[in-house]
Amino acid sequence: MSAGEELAYPHELILSASNISLGVIKGQYGTRTKLLANLLNFVLREKREKIKIEGKEDPTLSILASLTSRSPTSLDDHISEYRKKANELMEDFQNTQSETAYSSFIYFLKEGIFLHILCKEIRGSTVFLKEDISKFADILEYRENNLRAVFSAIQIWGTQKYDAVPHSIVFEFTSFRDEALREAVIFLSYVLAVDYPKSKRELLVSHYMLVRQVVNEFKKVISQEDLADPVLENLFKVAITLFFCGYLRTLRLPNDKKRTT
Asked: Is the pLDDT of residue 63 over 60?
């Protein structure tokens, strides 16, 4: 499928993102955008490039770059730096109680959630330790219910700790509104539905609603020329997330085609 064709199914979004990834890597785009394009190619087992990080290393960029390298030590070092930075931001907020410090802390945590999923899926590593999550959750304000639910979901991901997913998580995923956590909820609602069959129906409702939302969103922009960096970053993040959920392995045919095959 070419980039200009209309999207209809999640796997087509993955393929469209893959089709434009090499042009993005070789084009005039931001380092973060290029690293996410390269990471998509890495998980798809396509050709990847070595991308140089200019200037002072950002822990987020360093983790994204390390995920496509062959050195587990460098990834572990960058994860430690990320965790250190998160704790510094938390302490800054606790000391100042300023809205600016709180916003910086929350932004960093939300960015770290996606990195956490990437590291665990690709390398079996984790950005946030259980004690980190408990400590961070304790100082979240009431307006961060979506983030609190995502943290709780991460803590029980793969543990099969309960008979069913706690209602607080299911409720927040059902009424989910935080765009910064969208990829995390798409992924976590899927893996928890697999781990906890008793909650499967409710979780998959949230999952498919969000998947449909992102596919419809990118229908409108994927054929445009010169997409902006933020749009491309979101596209590559969504494509990687959908790949983790198995959408490229299971190509779903329209109902009328299913009946004739």
From this structure: yes
